[in-house]
Amino acid sequence: MTVTIYDVAREAKVSMATVSRVLNGNPNVKPETRKKVKDVIERLNYRPNAVARGLASKKTTTVGVIIPDISNLYYSALARGLDDIAEMYNYQTIITNTENDPEKEKDSFLSLVSKQVDGVVFLGGALNEETLTDIKNSHVPVVICGTSEKDKNLPSVNIDYFEAIKEATAKFLEEGSERIVFVKASFSNQLENHIEEGIKAAYKDLGKSVDDNSLILTADSDYQSGKDIFDQINSHKADVVITMSDETAIGVLHSAMDHDLEIPGDIQVLSCSNTRLVNMVRPQLSSIAMPLYDIGAVGMRLLTKYMNEETVDESNVILPYKIEYRSTTR
Amino acid sequence: MTVTIYDVAREAKVSMATVSRVLNGNPNVKPETRKKVKDVIERLNYRPNAVARGLASKKTTTVGVIIPDISNLYYSALARGLDDIAEMYNYQTIITNTENDPEKEKDSFLSLVSKQVDGVVFLGGALNEETLTDIKNSHVPVVICGTSEKDKNLPSVNIDYFEAIKEATAKFLEEGSERIVFVKASFSNQLENHIEEGIKAAYKDLGKSVDDNSLILTADSDYQSGKDIFDQINSHKADVVITMSDETAIGVLHSAMDHDLEIPGDIQVLSCSNTRLVNMVRPQLSSIAMPLYDIGAVGMRLLTKYMNEETVDESNVILPYKIEYRSTTR
DNA sequence: CTGAAAGCGCTAACAG
DNA sequence: CTGTTAGCGCTTTCAG
């Protein structure tokens, strides 16, 4: 019923080895033979079985992508960059969604490995101890984008979050803001720790202490959570709110406006994601601008190097950032 | 290096067939044997090779998902529904992104088939003649969600777009609106034709003609395209704008506000996607509310039936819709 | 330049 | 309940 390489070989009156050679672009085939085989392939509408191929060659030309939440614009922007480069290098991507669940993250990884992917990239993600162990045991090349793990053993692509947030915080403090609230996303992530450190460093540089004037809250990274957490922010009399997620920032923004606060007069808002959303709300959201697409693209490029066993000079890539002060900051 | 079923068999002093049986939960294994094998599996940290499995069993427990644009909230909402149900039925999903390119759509499908997926679902998509032919030739179960093809040969899940848009249009006309502009997305899609028909039907029912008073434009489905197309809308002196995409609607909205038009006083806006965005802008966007998550979920459920060769009573499922009149309509 | 033959790691009859 | 034996469809030596 399904046509196999064997059928093609028979029809073309060659051996299956030869058919395999033309399939794989092996130059050791006489042009006439090649043409003959190609014609039969066309006529029979033959398509190689990628599964059999994968088993025989131990390569699947497939990379796994593990994402906390595809419906989050932050991650899907990263994914676009990944995808484009993957295509350029003739890899296909299997995207799996963990729904921010570290357990699923681990399962997804194992499942991808059992599918014999040639490599996997984590976009964000918790990367807990267990998962790290599985990665090590798997002997599969892994690159992590937009997250990090403490030992820096894994190749990664990031921006310098610590510096970025420190710069932003210092600016707020220098301009007279005193009560800065930071809203973490509830999916624990090494990055957020760097960010906390950055905030603390900025305070310290100015001889101030974080504890009295700053508050660190946790919220889901959606719009409603931003609206919901506003009460806590407000009761802290915050004059600056920094959130991980754009959606959360927008929720905070709208709640603040509903409480007749002036933006950015009474309260300034800055997010750390810089997704397409920042330009889609009024007032436009100020944000630490990471090169999302590039992070994904560079991550995939890095992975191809590992998959080809090329040498890489820098396995922990840091990309530049900008801080875009739009209309929610002064 | 990698541990195989053969290693497990040897260590457990059984045949590989027995190992295979415990792997697949075959009841014909003595409890003690089962335990013995499981212990060895644990000890050796053995993980079955899904590729070999797929080749031998001709099943991959994997379904392909073809999406025009993952970074579009409309599609990612559908994908979430799909994913949840897929997981429930122990299928994994391979998501591929076509970037709204019919050529890529076709290639993605073929690639998925060569990977021996057990089924594929299209979310949206152009489904041109060529792709349809490939689908027919592939003998792989296919379900399409949020799109349709003219012959209705393929199982599908949709809402009644025609009715929805007719109802909305009729309401606008009855309430005195006269100049309705419809903004299609540029990715041609059978659905949009249904929508056009719905608009025409509404006009006709009231004894009016579409041509004089209605204008049909085409724009990409992003925010900027919405802003850009406003000039055309404005020069038509539209009093109602209906767009496929939420982002486009928001772009139109903001442009209109920048031109000092009152919303919804001077111009009303309605979108057809109802993604999370509708609540994240001020004023909140009125929209035809489709059950996005459910469309995906029902689609995947339908696919499982085909993959199991169960009988299905209704292969073209129509789910209910609501029209949510929020703050951009009167 | 081409063919024969040996697997890749697993499932699935078929015996027993 | 368990083992033996063929493959699944392809790649890849190794000869020639």
TrEMBL record, chains A, B:
It comes from Salinicoccus halodurans. SUPFAM superfamilies: lambda repressor-like DNA-binding domains, Periplasmic binding protein-like I. It comes from the Bacteria. Residues 3-57 form the HTH lacI-type domain. GO terms for molecular function: DNA-binding transcription factor activity; transcription cis-regulatory region binding. Keywords: Activator, DNA-binding, Repressor, Transcription, Transcription regulation. This is Catabolite control protein A. InterPro entries: CcpA (IPR006377), HTH_LacI (IPR000843), Lambda_DNA-bd_dom_sf (IPR010982), Peripla_BP/Lac1_sug-bd_dom (IPR001761), Peripla_BP_I (IPR028082). PANTHER family: ARABINOSE METABOLISM TRANSCRIPTIONAL REPRESSOR, LACI-RELATED TRANSCRIPTIONAL REPRESSOR. CDD domains: HTH_LacI. Global transcriptional regulator of carbon catabolite repression (CCR) and carbon catabolite activation (CCA), which ensures optimal energy usage under diverse conditions.
